[in-house]
Every structure is written in C-alpha cells, then in structure tokens.
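Researcher: For the record, we're logging two predictions in this thread. I'll number them. Prediction 1 follows.
Model: Prediction 1, sequence and structure:
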Amino acid sequence: MERKYTFEDYLNVVRTLRSPGGCPWDGKQTHESLRPYMVEEAYEVLDGIRILQQTGQADNLCEELGDVLLQVLFHSVIAEEEGYFRIEDVIDGGCRKMIRRHPHVFPEESGQKTAEKTDWDEIKRREKGYVSPEEELRAIPSEFPALMRAQKVYRKKKKIYGNTHTAEESADNIRNMLTAFPEADDGRNSERIAEILYEVCAFAEEHGVNAEQALADRVQDRILTENP
C-alpha cells in the first residue's frame, strides 16, 4: 500500500525546503513575496469548487486545498524562523476563536453558561475592541477585490446604522445615474461609474447575491460565447 503522508510530513517538507541545502527559491521567500501566491491559490480553490459543482469531480478541489495549506505552512514556518509564532499557535488560536464565537455550541469551553445563540459580529466587536463604527468599517481589509469590499462595506453599514435603502431605491438610483450619465467625458466618468458599481453592489446585497461571484460567473460565460 502506498504511503499516506501526514500533516506533520507536510510541515517537515516545508521546513526542509527552507533549510540550508534546501530549495534556493523557497529559502528566500518572505511574507511579502508570497502575497500573490496566497491570492492565486485561494481563487484556484474557487475554480475547484466550480469544477466540482459542474462535473462532480473533486480531485481538483482536493489539490487546490493542498496548495492553500502549503501557503499557510510557508507563512507559519517563516514566522517560526523569525521568532513570532509556530503552526501550533495558528491552530490553537483558530480553535479558540471558533469556540469563543460559538458559545451556543461550546457553552462550557467558551466560558458561557447559556446555550442561546450569540451574535458573531458582537463577539468579534468585543474581541477587537472597536470603539466606533468608523473603526469597525476601517477594519474591512483593503486587499479585498473591489466588488467584494464594496458589498461588505454596505452590509456592515446596514448592520451598524440600519437599512440604508431598499432594493427598489437602489434600482432607482442606478437608473437615475445611468440616465444622467453625460455623452461627453468631462473627467468625472470614472467617479460616476464607481458610484454606479457601488450601487449595483448594494442592489446585489439586498437581493442576496454575491456580486463578485456573479460577475465572475458571467465573465466565464462570456469566454465561452462569441458575444463581446
């Protein structure tokens, strides 16, 4: 029977690649240099999910999840070399966070005496020590793709301040902005289009649609057709 490698084996592979006499390319990587690979691998996981949904084949998803885990191990080993933390700390912190944010599932482990469901965002707010809505909004990662970030900002604002406007109002705003769009470019078209895109994200949120994924799926469809 062929050997099955373990999590510990994978970790040791990364440590060996990083060690003297290992792979020169792997050995010189940093948190900063690995940034694009983490993003690429995450999106390849999404493609693996699409393949699974369309074909029922899970091999690609399994492989891509392994590549994402490789990135986690790389960053953890680099941090270990730098004296910051180890992979064990990553796992411990992740477990503690999940338990802490699900007190209705882990009442004893989380220190709660109630099985009532607790608001995830409220627990996160206490953990992070946010003192104002602005601070909470600024914490939304700027590295998110623009449509994803816009929809998350809208969702967060809606939760903090209440419903900003309805889906119908979003639709009216989009129609009005398109109708008022000038034929000649006066230098503000980029700003106007950005406003329309943000309003489209709000419209998508009100209808429970992931704007980023919806556009990605549509682009994929366009690739497979002759229409521009």
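Researcher: Logged. Prediction 2.
Model: Prediction 2, sequence and structure:
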Amino acid sequence: MIYESTLYKVIRYVFLVLASIFVLVPLIPLVFMAFKTGEEYSSTSVLTPPSNWFNFYNFGYALRVGHLIKAFLTTAVILVISLAIQILFTCMVSYVLHRFDFRGKKVVQTAFTLTMFIPVVATQTLVFRMMHAVKLVNTMWSVIILYAGVGIIGIYIMLNLLDNVTKEIDEAAWIDGASFQYTFWAIVFPLMRPACTTLLIIQGIALYNDFYIPNLYLNSNVQTFTVALYKFYGSMSTPFEIVSAAILIGMIPILIVFITLQKYIYNGIAAGAVKM
C-alpha cells in the first residue's frame, strides 16, 4: 500500500513538472526578447538572456506606437459595463429559475443549456445584420451588448450557490410583507456576492482575451487590446523584440488577476460542475 502511494505521488509530480515545462518554455524566450535590443535579438539565441534587464525601450515604444494605452482604456470600459450587466441579469435569471415554478421553466432551462453547443461563428451573420440595422456596428455598444448576455456557466454557478440559501429566508420576508423585488435586492442578492466574484473573474479573463467579436464589430479608431496587439504584430515593420514586449504587457493584467484570485477561479469552476 505504501509502495502504491509513493508510486502514485511520483507519477503525479512527474506529470505536473512536464506540464509546467510545456507552459513555461515558450514564455522564457518571450521574456528574454522583450528586454533585448534589436542588435541583441539578431545576433544572439532566443534562449540567451538579455545583457540589460533594465532596457524598457521596447515597452515604451509598444505602448506609444501600438496605441496600447488607448486600447487598454477601451477594453476596461467595455468589460466594466458588460460584466456589470451580465452579472446582474445572471443573478436575476438564476433567482427566478431556482425559486419559482412556472409554465415553460424546463423549456427556458433547456434553451440556455443548448447555447453551449452553438458556435459563436454560426450565428454572427444574422447578429451582424441586426447590429448593422440599428447602427451599432463600429461602436463599443455592439461589443458591450454581445458580451452582456447571460451564459449557462454563470447560471450553473448561481444555482449552486442558491442551493445553500434556504427558501425559508424568502418566505420569512414575504410573511413580513416584503415584495419579491425587495426580497431579492435586500436579502438574496447580497448573499450571492461570492458567486458574483467568481463569475466576474472567469468571464473577465475570457472577454479580455476575446479577439473575434471586437475585430468584427469595431473599427480602427476603437480597438480592444487583443485587436490592437494583433494589428501591431501584423505590421511587417515592427521588430519582433518590440512585439514581444507588447505581448508581455498584455499578459501582465491576466497574470496579476490569476495569481491574486486563483482560489476564487478554482472554487467557481468546481461550483459550476453541477447538474441543473
């Protein structure tokens, strides 16, 4: 039994080390190149460390010429508005589905579940025509509206949390004369904040990394960071050491969020892995 336990631990750590190597190896040359000068990049190996770790010229050039600061601000505005709407609507929809029985409830639940199996690309022709008809294409509002939709993952997370919030709390409030709206906003909604935090992190990272929607609906004057980075990288005149610095800049916010709040991400994924 001790032998089997030791063997299991060895195999587990071997796989963890190999997985870490596969993840970290591509990042090491990226970090090295971001701090190199153009001459160093052309004359040294990608695995050779830079001679000066305080060479921040590439980062400044990328921020200035690639318009990455403006792209960061645009991304922040889109994420703040769309995530606020998405989380609010997700909480409201989940509360209704969990607390009330009504005709067509199973149909609504099934419809939300089926959205998981429909590729985003498959519906974009019709969605784009609708956005164009209301003159929202080439504006941030088109992306905000598409990002603000309620997703089934968020509903799973909220429903799992509401399983731990007894209905007796609602019933006690109703007996005291509270309305359904007051019960939700004053009593239930504050108890849903941990799930809201989890959804905020998971969706925030996903939307920050999204490229397809912003590239399709925004013009060159209004770009998210991923689109601005792609166009900056696509310029044939941009040296790759500067592109590496731009990529590293884009990774920093995600790394900070993940390292700081990783326990909420893991708990949220586990919370979403339940049956509705």
